Every structure is written in C-alpha cells, then in structure tokens.
Amino acid sequence: MTSPALSETATLDAARLRADFPILQQEVNGHPLVYLDSGATSQKPRQVLQAEYDFLTRSNAAVHRGAHTLAAEATDLFEDARATVARFVGARAEQLVWTSGATMGLNLVAYAIGNATLGRGAPASARFALQPGDEIVATATEHHANLIPWQELAARTGAVLRHIPVHDDGRLDLDAAAEIIGERTRIVAFSHVSNVLGIVNPVAEIVALAHEVGALTVLDACQSAPHMRLDLPALGVDLAVFSGHKMLGPYGVGGLYGRSDVLEALPPFLTGGSMITTVTLDEAGYLPPPQRFEAGTQPIGPAIGLAAAVSYLEDAGMPAVHAHEARLAARMREGLVDIPGIRLLGDAEGGERVGLWSFTVDGVHAHDAGQYLDAQGIAVRVGHHCAAPLHKRFGVTASVRASTSLYNTDDDVDALVDAVGGIRSYFGVNA
Length: 431
Known about the structure:
Blueprint: H1 14-17, E1 27-28, E2 31-32, E3 34-35, H2 46-58, H3 69-88, E4 96-99, H4 102-117, E5 135-139, H5 148-157, E6 160-164, H6 174-180, E7 185-191, H7 203-212, E8 216-220, H8 232-235, E9 239-243, E10 254-258, H9 260-265, E11 276-279, E12 284-286, H10 300-316, H11 318-336, E13 342-345, E14 356-361, H12 366-375, E15 378-379, E16 381-383, H13 388-393, E17 399-403, H14 410-420, H15 423-426
Parallel strand pairs: 3-15, 5-6, 5-7, 7-8, 8-9
Antiparallel strand pairs: 1-2, 4-10, 9-10, 11-12, 13-14, 14-17, 16-17
C-alpha cells in the first residue's frame, strides 16, 4: 500500500504525492485545481479508494454476524482496521469506538452522560451524573459540534455552560481558564486545533486544570489528527473524537477514543442489535466497550478505507507532514500580510499551528471573495466555518479560510496569494 512517492526522511515531496490523488489532476473553471479546503474535507488517495473497493467487491458482508466465510473475512478486516486506526492515535483497539464522525462522537458522549444523569447504566455510571449548578466548560473557539451538544446537555440537566475566552491574537486565555475551571466543573470540552484559527491549543495545561478538580476532558481532534503526530493517551485526555473524511479517509466514519475506565463506566447512547449480551422482552444486558457503543450496522467499508488512509499518513511520516504544512502556513502568512486590506484571524506570534489561515478582505464579503477565487480554480471555505460565536468575537460574520494538507505545494500557496491580491481591485474597492 506504500506509495513510491512517500519518503521515510523528514521531508515530504508534495508534488510527487499529488499523483496519488486523482481529483487533483483536473481543471476547474479553466484553471488547474488548487484545493485549499482540506479543513472541511480532504481529498482521497487511490490507496484509500482501492481499499474500500476491494472490500466491497471481495469480502462484503455484515460483521459480527453470521458464520459464513465472507462474514468472517469482513469481521477480520473491520477489526484489523480498528487496531490500525487506534494505533495511529496511540490507543489500543478496545479504546476506539467507531462513529459516523466527530459530531456523532461528541453527541454520543453528551447523551451518554445525560443517560447517566437519569440513573441509567451500571453503578459506575453515577460518576458522570450532573446536578443543577454543575458546570460544563468549553472555549470560545469551538466548532458548533463541540458546543451545541453541551448546550443541550446543560438544558436537560440544569448544568451551567461556561466558556474560556480567547485573546485578540487567537490564543486561549489560560489565566481566565484557571479562574473558570473550579470545584463545580464536571466536563471540559475543547479543540486541539481551532478550525478557524489553525492554532494548536495548550492541551497539557487545560487537562491539568481539569483533572485537578476531577473534571472529565473531551478533546476535538478533527483538525490535529490529519496534520500532526497524535498520542491521545499521552495527552492525558479522557475522551477524544476525530473524523475520517478530514484525514484522507471516506465519509461516514470517525473515531471516539476513550480511556478504558471511562468507556467501561459510560452507559450506551444508541441501542439495538450488536451491542447486547442478553435480551428479554423487558430488559437487556450490554456488551463491554467498544461494542457497547456500536449498535446496528457499522460503517465497515469506510472503516477499512480509514485504515488505509492512516497507513498512507504513517508512510508519509506525521512529523514530515506537520513540518511541511507548517512551512506552507508560514509562506501563506508571509504573502497575505503584505496585501492591503487583508486581516488574518488568530495571527498569534510564535507557538505551534497547522497549515490553516482564515482572513477577511476589507470591503468585500467573504462569499464574494470565495467566488472570485473559485473562478480561478482555487477552492477555499467561506462563511463562519461552523464557529459563529468565534467570528462574532472577532467582530466579523464570515471569513475566507484556506487550509492545506500533505498534497499541497508552494505553487498552491503562491496561486492563492496572487489571486487574493486582486480581489479588492476586481470589486472596485480602493486600496
């Protein structure tokens, strides 16, 4: 499965990697495609497409059901994929729950805690029960998927949702965090990397504050898993989520990592077939994790495709991927800051970041700027990027976001910078 374009050295040849991505070979609106929207969804290499195709054409069957040959083969492939993806984030296979993506993973956790609050689950589940006045802490930088589930959980339980603010340069206010996280805090949910700012948040510091008061930590790793080496147990988080489609994998699959003692104590959220031990007409017993949280038909082909995706990333070398994208981020910043009327969001000096920048164009709406770029074959994200409160914090309703992956090149960044330089004049805005 290893591509000949991949190197074991600390450098990465993105120009050669591009040959593995069929979609990048096309033109859009008469221009070579410059894809800078990997923060929304990444493109998929042939190796991933082939892995899912091979499963569907050779071993397609339901897993953990049936005794025939195809069912056994499918189950082995499915569980081998779990082990591969778990290893990629530093975990054991039994610590990885398959989900449809990060949004489902976060909702799973929030609703499982709600079920514990209702007294459902084993006696150990009582540790997660919330009382009126208990506090859930998120940050002002969160994607809606790591905000709304906690809003709903607070509404159902009487808990209070609080937020760690962000500095003008995009860094989290850790002094405020130390004041906010206290004896009533039960959950601290935060992103590893902001999907708007590209800044790598200080996980160790936030986890230390949370664990000092016995709070559960929930990490959104969607924007870190594709771009940097990830060891979730070493980070000390209790639970974490990520999405396959953002890390070269298929749609409809993601992962929920959990410390073993946490997963074993959480009650289930979805119920039905494949997650039970015994069933009568009046009650049921539930399997241990991860199967406890995997009711119904699972995303078998997508899981196998995701395993191929993480193998591709591992072959590339995550330190090399991170270094490559950090260099692209620096190149992008250097070009954008010299253009009159461009404002970068979260332009913090120093610190770690991934290859992602959001910016506004003075006098031009983000959607108009995005259409101008699209006309030149440059794909970016426009809008509030499912982080409306963060945009409001910076005094804007929308921004343009350019985000890289391992297949982007200096030429891609230069094409973006050149095109952005022409936006204001195109719309008749004086420099």
